[in-house]
Amino acid sequence: MSILLRQATGRTMSVISYAALLVFLPLFIFIVGQTVTLLTRATGMPANILVDAGTRLEAIDTDFLHAFAQGGEESNDMLASVVGDVRALKPRVIRLDHLYDHYNVVGRDGGNLTFDWSKLDTAVNTIISTGAKPVFALSYMPGVIAVDGSIINPPNDWNEWALVVQRTIEHYSGRGSKNLSGIYYEVWNEPDLAQFGSWKMGGDKNYLTLYRYAAIGAANAQNVNAFFLGGPATTGLYKNWILGLVNSGSRVDFFSWHSYLSNPKQFATDQKNIISWLLPHPTYTLLPKLITEFGFTGNKSTGYGGMYGAAHAAAVIRQLISGGPTYLFTFQLKDGPNQSDGSGWGLISHDDNGLKKKPRYHVTSFVDTMVGTRLLLTGEGSWVTGFSTIRDDVVRIFLVNFDANGSHTEQVPVKITNLPPGTYQLRTRLLAGRDTTTTHAVEVGELATDILMPAQSIAILELTKQATP
Amino acid sequence: MKRVGLILVSLLLFAALPATIFLVMRNQEIRNKAAPATTLSLNPATVSKAVGEDFTLEVKMNTAANQIVAVELNLTFDPTKLQAEWIHNGTMFPNILSSGTVGNGTLSMAVGATNTTTPITGTGTVATIKFKALAATASPVSVRFSQDTFVGALGEGNVNALTSTTPATITIGSGGSTITPTVTTTAGVTPTTTITGTPSITPTDTPSGTGGGLDEDSDNEATSGASVKILTPDEDESVTTLPKVVGTAAPGSTVTIVIHSAQEITATVVADANGNWAYVLEEALASGPHTINVAAQNPTSGETTTASLSFVVASGSENGSSGEAIPVSGAVENTLLLLSVGILFILIGAVVPALHKR
Question: Are residues A358 and A375 in the same domain?
Fold first, then answer.
């Protein structure tokens, strides 16, 4: 080494130094990043839950959760075999995509387009039989009108795309047809994704053109009930897409996007962001906002088959329980075939895997218990979050311990203040876990307890005052 | 003869140019005066608490003539002195658009009307915030609205309908507590009353009547002779850009003056042997409404008393004149556009005849 140092010129040494810097700098940054990540995980804030039973806030309802999406892993009536299980979820809306490539709707006879709704109607009738209204993702381009016959291409004639949309709306919202009211029509599905066309906000494959002709079709629809037309149904919430739609001049009745985010708090940030973007456009600020697909990853993952997926969903619901979207669509209701490893997005496994309900299936009804008037809850932590409500004098506390990266278990102190004196029963239920009831005497208006929250667990504490003998 | 006519036309055009500019400016000014001015304020405007005590601030809105659809509140405070415990929507806006978040020295929340067909008008409470006093303050700290607080109103396009905000001034000590709630009447009077002793705050909704029973003569009336008072300017007085602030306090008191403008101005003066104090601003204030908060610490008893009032810096008062305040909203783009079009027409008017003559 010393020989090298003696023989090397200053210039050579400089070159070597720069080369070393170039090699080691990324490595150094990577190591620092990893260290920071580990430290951050280790130094998160534990929860110390404090509920003020005397501070009542807004009404909490869970209607927005009763929204589900079904993908197109099979080009048939996928929900037919799970109608009972889906109905038990009390769905308000169920979203369907692949309308024009899975259900043979659009054909051509000479120079005219023909429409055959029979196959799509079967799937829609199944949705309606669960008690839900269908939400239509107007996708993808019918092969008979698409450039090169590709379902992700623009049409050869934009007026034919407008006609397809017009006829779809007339068929389902038409007073002389299916006569459905308040139906959401969403223009396309994940247009920004290469798999679905890689549409842009400009250029040859301009989503705004796709949307504009859909709006023209909507405007041409005759004798129809009130309906909603919106988009852009992108893979995430993107400002340029939202404002592009706002500034397009086309009819917009709602905004939609997908959220596959492992950090539940990002869902709340998204809500804040879209409101900020829309505030300078007051006529758009209050329009419905639909997260038409959500999950912790857009890829298939065995996490969807266990408590990880359930805890993530519960943590997201906590973030959106106040100031959330009009609908939060769980993706999806049922797995596609060949996913026996539990990696499918479904709440229910496929027919070929026994139609088993996964933990995520039970989250909606569990959270429904929380309907009531919100109580002030403070002391949420980095992993354990929650909210509290009161209904019929029963105080409920919803807690979820979601650790996106590991297996964090926490003993969570819980204190409820401003309680009338008396004897209370405290029921502690964990989703897919223990269910215990204890009795407590409250003399000075406070009840303190704690609860062990294993990683990826969801709990409801229910405090009921016993009748005075 | 033609030449004389051309000269006359040119003179006429040159005479018309300043006249056009004058008229356009007048129109712009009239438009600005007519522009509805939505305001946000924190109530009470001045709070004195001891370390460890809680208090509540209400975010009040006066929509003026605007029809409000949604509000994004962003507030800042000193996290070493104050801890925000929660923020929640008030009765004025039933629709929570994004839930309240508490950060390190920041608060945010977005609320809205139920729909655009029933926009919000009038006065009321947008949100309520609960704080805990963490540490004693050498001089008052403020809770204030960030620049990115936005009020969206129908018919206002993408313009922020918010024209002014009034922060709250918090003094944290180890002794007793005083609270100074501010009540704004529709007549624009903002009297203040100092309450001593009880640390709890009972926020009062802004009355929609003509004074709400408050005696306007009680402005800045203190409960004891040693309490700080602001003598000038008067409440809601229109003043020049360099107003002189004059008041009284217990002799030898250290008086902290905070003027809430585009940039907060803080100054400290000492009351003389007769209890008189005065402060002349060194930097010009912008046109529009402003708030003064003063806090004086009695050198003998250690008691801190506070007072506050609002005043207005009149538009065009740079030369010392005093006139009606003009809201600061409005844009010069229209004026520039009209001027450009006017100049274009003048040029065409001058060039076309000349070309025609050739």
Answer: no
